[in-house]
Design goal:
Number of strands: 16
Number of domains: 4
Largest sheet: 5 strands, antiparallel
Bound molecules: zinc ion
CATH class of the largest domain: Alpha Beta
Distance between the termini: 43 Å
CATH architecture of the largest domain: 3-Layer(aba) Sandwich
Shape: flat
CATH topology of the largest domain: Dna Topoisomerase Vi A Subunit, Chain: A, domain 2
Length: 569
Amino acid sequence: MEIRQALEEIKSRLDIVDFISEHLDLRRSGSNFKALCPFHNEKTPSFMVSPEKQIFHCFGCGTGGDIVTFVMKYEGLPFVDAVKRLSARAGISIDEPRRQGGHRSGISRSDLLETNKKATLFFRKKLFETPLAINYLKDRGITEDTSQTFSLGFAPPGRTNLLEHLLKDGVKEEVILRAGLCKDTENGRIDTFRNRIIFPITNISGEVIAFGGRAIKKDFPGPKYINSPDTPLFHKSSALFGLSHARKEIAKKGYVILMEGYLDVITSYQAGIKNAVAPLGTALTDGQVRRLKNLTRNALLVFDSDDAGIKATRRALKLLYKNGITGKVLLLAPGDDPDSFIRKHGAKGFRSLFPHSKGLVEFFLTLNEDRVDILREVLYIISDIKDAILRGELIRELSEKTDLPEAFLREELRGIRTGDEKERITLLKGEDTPERHLLGIFINYPDYRSKIKEALLPELFYSQKYKQIFEKLFSTDFKEISEIKDIFTDEEFSSITSSAISCDIDSEEIGKNIDDSVAKLYNMRKKRRIKEIESNLRIAEKSGDDKKVDTLKKELDKLIKEGLHDGVF
Ligand SMILES: [Zn+2]
């Protein structure tokens, strides 16, 4: 029997209450059972088991799941072993699971690192054999020393050069696949990187965890840049290019320079500016910022000055300030990036621009956009800053540069912060928000999943946390909670089990319950929008922008006239 079938069989033959009661002293409490939690120290029971839903959740420490999760946690077993243990107990025999998925398949971290090391050497050797690739780097002004430092390489154009090389070297095909170095296509298994300059991506200790590849011929199929897929070693959203090389200099200089591309970082390094790193892809992520936060509290952003670059800069500033990092922005002339600028003007020329970099307020106020919207965006960023002194300084600066009274700005800021704080507390207490309610239904009643998926439009979410959980759920096909545990963080998974165990609905009422919750979300969104316009109106009035006041009043009238959503679809 396959593992998925076995899971179903286990659930039909074993009862979670019977099973857990062999280990814990379960007492009835309403429709559930209660016990002292085995996973944290407590004096009053907050560990709940639901016989009806066949899941458990501890409201003290957040641990929860189904019978398989319980065995995994209680006995400290990996997933497959927990299923085996329960199968034996239920009298089911299962096949050895098919080998797939990192830690479950017996492929270790060091297997993957070793394979990446071999691939790096292969790419490096190919670089020396390929004049086209050597010339590409030469044209870019990259010296042999620098190429060596960053272990740059070249992936030849054939279909399976690397694959064959690694197999011959004794690496198992499943390891190569798992490392993301080859992939399956309609036409068979091929190398992930072909006809590309290779930029190895390292972790903070300098081990190669993934690769970036840049096409050097325009007519070769595929995008200009590609990265390794996510693997057990590499998560694109938290890795930064150049970090192992920049780490020391970041500490020494007291700040990091964030640039857009691999070549920006490499050219800077070669010119002696060694505290630069680049996110992989244009947008900086929360995971990357958290990584930086351990190294420094100051960042200089030098992204491209085109629309996409400005957008990325705004997003990055928001993330940086939210995480307690102060950001400054250096805008190069349109068309220039650090790579091209340094090649033209040298490190000295580049450094001479640093004193002209703009702080948060200055940067936003120089953007050629609607003043009120810009002010609002800055206020939102400031509202996320935890340090009260920094918040005060920025408000003062904003007031000086806009001629709006400081007291007025503070008042608007307070409005934003109270809203956020309320939201945070609601989430913390696990209060019954519409999103939490829908999550419970989604988990407990599979028949209604497609209905929820259709109704829950991305813009309807009030909480980013639930939005992320639902995005993952929507893209996964699953029956049992234990099947999806791996794709969630502990905190997310805890929200899932907690909402599932608290969700108590008469089965006849489920459809109506979904409609009501969705209608509530529509209304929350509308109220939020109305509040925002009202605040914009105050700002526009204070700034004496009559035209803007007019537009906003009309928009507000329209929204209020529409009334609230009544939950009929
Ligand atoms: Zn607990």
